[in-house]
# Entry
Amino acid sequence: MAGTWVFVEQKDGNIRKVTFEMLSELKKGGDEVSAVVFGKGVEGLAPALAAAGADKVLVADDDLFAAYNTGAYVAQMVAMIKEFSPNAVLFAHSFNGRDMASRLAQKLDAGLATDAVAAEISAGKGFFTRAIYAGKALAKVEVTGSPVLATIRPGVWEVGSTAGAGEVVKVAIAATAADVYQVAKSFIPTVSARPDLSEAAVVVSGGRGCKGPEGIKLVEQLADLLGAAVGGSRASIDSGWLGHELQVGQTGKVVLPNLYVACGISGAIQHLAGMSSSKFIAAINTDTEAPIFNVSDFGVVADLFKVIPILCSELKK
Amino acid sequence: MKVLVCVKQTFDTEAKIELKGGVISDAGINLIINPYDEVAVEGGIQLKEKGVATEVVVISAGSDKAMDAIRTALAMGADRGILVKQDTAADEYARAVALAAAIKAENPDLVLAGHVAADDGSSQVPTRIAEILGLPHVNVMTSVEIAGGKATCTCEADGGTAVIEVALPAVISSQVSWNEPRYPSMKGIMAAKKKPVATVDAVAVENKVKIVEFALPAAKTAGIKIEDEADVCAAKLADWMKNTVKVEVK
# Structure
């Protein structure tokens, strides 16, 4: 079969955008692109995957795959790789994607490039650009192997008009209950109407200058007006104003939105590492010397408590 | 219960990265325990303090310099250390093979590590170690209960929080929100000097991933900066968001 495979990130039938990004980018490259989807009752996802660029949709449909678990997913993927010999298998650099790809790579005695922001793939070889030191440097790496394995950072590629035929291929189920070693006791979805921080087109973040929950509330108001995710610098996370999962920076998440709005964030090097690749950056800070202004496309030296409410009403006009 | 904690020595997260002769320069850089691994060390020590663990062994693969990272972990309260001597250019595969061989010889009940390293950002090594040792693993754990030969882990997951149970022995990688690592006390630092550290050579394997080149990202330059009354600033910023960024207002 050869071609390049994209492992589909989905939960309860909702496909993550990064999957479409990968399908679309690979389809532009001209190679045969297959979407590989594991789950229960997931065949109906094929048209959406085809629309993004999947020539084929390989479906492993079984109760065993109803929810992600490393053991069964890796066992199934190993069997499919042996049967079909793809040139490359790409995963999303999500929690599940990196977990599955790492265990798979070791099982295959293979290399793996995680969190790639660019890729050039040919038969038996792939060059990937990885952001290291949380984006303070870039490393171009070569991964050889059959297949070439990598995880791709969400948001680096755009979804274009790249439809594929989407021919559904139902594959044999090779994994068994004996492959499962993690028992899922419960899953509590994040209750938030806001988009996921790592996939959001707009991120509004609050830092020390928010001074407390009142300031964060303003950040959230602006975020909701822009349909944005909320993030924070280490100061606002350590102060307990925001949950740890919302930290942007070297010990938190690296984000890549179209617009990043830094409110009351001075711009320590660890924070800049997590957000300075954003397409547009705006900053609101009372300190004219704050390093955040060095990376900002639009900086406002003013008090966020005064600016944000007026900004919100101006935006609504 | 014996706990092994994997630590990697990394650059201080405040370090500015510079290239010298095409490679990343470590000149004048302060080296620390990877902040994610530091949390795993603290977690291991707390398990011992709670009476769950009987011994906490810290292991690191790296150059002689990594001895400092081991000594820091010992000063925090780990019992002994193992330095697996390996070229710091080892990739995730080679590192996992070297660590797994040394871990296997220790036969631990639990292997802890941070879920990612602050330098290469790979998030591969703990999972690879589990695969080599044929053990279950759980990643990005934020809290754990250990009882009856099982570890019940609360984990940061895609779109929520998952609770996952695995049988021990297992490899568990932790998230920084698990705990707040302690600073080593003076007493701890003195005691660490007398704690045993074994040195072993890494199993020699070839890297699977080859670094072609390093580069620095294009420096972002400052754009417009305005200092004015709040209403003027807000109006101009709103205008820029609407007309330049073209945001959609809900």
Observations:
- Chain B is about 30% helix and 35% strand.
- Chain B touches chain A through 88 residues (CB under 8 Å).
